[in-house]
Design a protein that fits this description.
With 472 residues, the protein is α+β, with helices and mostly antiparallel strands. Helix content is 32%, strand content 19%. Strands 11, 12, 13, 14, 15, 16, 17 and 18 form an eight-stranded antiparallel sheet that branches.
Length: 472
């Protein structure tokens, strides 16, 4: 619990504030930070400015919240009333959320599945559980969890001040500790549920199920305009369409592949090829260019989301994915892909899913190359299966954390060398090596992918150019 506590303690309030802003959050943990939020037009990177602005005078009348978190899940949320004049003793109770442990809500009944998500067996929380809420409450929870994780923690309290427009400033973070004695009531059920979930897992996690939904866009190169994927693809299905980034035009403009989840990487990749063939049949206009990666066009941030069930979500698991998967893929990305951060591609970006697992949302769209896609899928499966053995955390270091968000690769290349040695020593690596080693070879050669390239031909191999030979 809170394996990154030393990271948090090493940072000054000023450094904590800077790290939160680097991660796309607003922070007012120091007098200078509060002053900065007073200035007109000030906002976090990648976020619109907020009106009215946070000022010393207006903050007295702003709603504040205490959000208590255990294992990256909100277990309690309290409103403190409007502004600094309201202490915790006079706080107004807003809600006490149930703990979500590995997709299971502690203390709540879980109803049998009414449907399946991406082909996986689903278990849906009971009505009124607060599961995966959207809107202002969802944004409040997400901000608190993201702030805690960004500072190296997974359990504790976060005090937020509402800025309007569903945006919040982080004012205080207090790590959770069991050393103080009896657990607060809000944490007890969460601690018990986590202990039970972890105790039921078998070595190597043979029950692990993995899915994905990588994105791409359709570009008419003669005009430089994105063609909405909804012209060709349905909302549902293995090849479908989805909403685009905020500010983009077109009804469901982004194309998305949703292969059926599988327990083995090779089987999942076979499903991915089936989804590619479906998209190829449905997108009849052969003049359209398929683009993937992190940001193949300005404003068009794309993701390569991975789904996992059969494993308990924990902060060490997320940090292993960040350091052993997101970091190497960042070393391969096109220089323009860094522009998607921090709004997209932030470290530890996850979403609990109703199928009993979670979605890891940090990666760019790995459809840029079949070689990279295969390497990413096999590497992700290996990491999640054996994450307890992957304990190096170079991204905890302030200079490397900053390098990741700004896209500066040289220090991260050096930092990745011991990580790849550790990966090669894992049980199961020998079987996965033929798929992962080409990806590691690209990193060693300092190669990067090209987001201006049409990927459609790469995913339609011929005898003269089999998929296994395609490079970045």
């Amino acid at each position: 619990m809170n394996e990154g506590l030393n990271v948090f303690l090493r940072l000054t309030d000023r450094q904590r504030e800077a790290r939160l802003r680097r991660c796309g959050l607003k922070a007012a943990m120091t007098p200078a930070g509060r002053t900065q939020l007073e200035r007109p037009g000030i906002s976090s990177p990648g976020e619109p400015s907020v009106q009215p602005h946070y000022t010393e005078r207006s903050s007295i009348h702003r709603q504040q919240y205490i959000v208590r978190i255990f294992n990256l899940q909100v277990v309690d949320l309290q409103g403190l009333g409007a502004g600094q004049a309201m202490g915790r003793q006079g706080g107004i109770r807003v809600e006490e959320g149930a703990a979500v442990i590995g997709g299971i809500i502690a203390g709540e009944a879980v109803q049998p599945a009414q449907r399946s998500v991406a082909g996986a067996t689903a278990a849906e929380p009971a009505p009124g559980s607060g599961y995966n809420r959207r809107g202002a409450a969802g944004q409040l929870r997400e901000t608190a969890v993201r702030a805690l994780y960004s500072l190296g923690l997974d359990s504790g309290e976060v005090r937020l001040t509402a800025l309007g427009g569903r945006q919040y400033a982080v004012e205080e973070v207090i790590p959770f500790s069991v050393a103080t004695g009896e657990l607060p009531g809000a944490y007890q059920a969460a601690v018990q549920a986590l202990s039970a979930a972890l105790g039921s897992e078998q070595p190597g996690r043979p029950g692990l199920l993995m899915g994905m939904d990588p994105e791409f866009i359709l570009l008419r190169e003669s005009t430089g305009r994105v063609v909405p994927a909804s012209r060709y693809l349905p909302l549902d299905g293995a090849a479908g369409c989805d909403a685009g980034p905020p500010g983009t035009r077109g009804t469901f403009p982004v194309a998305e592949l949703r292969p059926q989840p599988r327990g083995e990487p090779r089987a999942l990749l076979a499903q991915l090829m089936s989804a590619v063939r479906a998209a190829d049949r449905l997108i009849a206009d052969r003049s359209l260019s398929w683009r993937a990666g992190g940001m193949p066009l300005p404003g068009w941030a794309l993701g390569g989301h991975l789904h996992f069930s059969g494993v308990t979500l924990t902060a060490p698991l997320l940090r292993a994915l960040d350091n052993y998967l997101a970091l190497p893929l960042m070393l391969l990305e096109d220089a323009g892909a860094a522009a998607r951060r921090p709004r997209y591609g932030m470290l530890g970006d996850f979403r609990i899913q109703p199928h009993g697992g979670f979605e890891y949302r940090t990666l760019p769209s790995f459809l840029v190359s079949p070689v990279i896609a295969r390497g990413a899928v096999f590497l992700a499966h290996l990491i999640v299966s054996r994450y307890e053995d992957l304990v190096l955390r170079p991204l905890d270091r302030e200079e490397l954390h900053a390098a990741y968000y700004s896209g500066v690769k040289p220090p991260l290349r050096a930092a990745f060398i011991p990580l790849q040695a550790q990966l090669r020593g894992l049980p199961g690596y020998t079987q996965a090596a033929r798929y992962i080693e080409p990806l590691l070879g690209y990193i060693a050669a300092e190669r990067t992918w090209d987001e201006s390239r049409d990927i459609r031909g790469l995913w339609r191999p011929t005898e003269a150019a089999p998929a296994a030979s395609v490079e970045v």
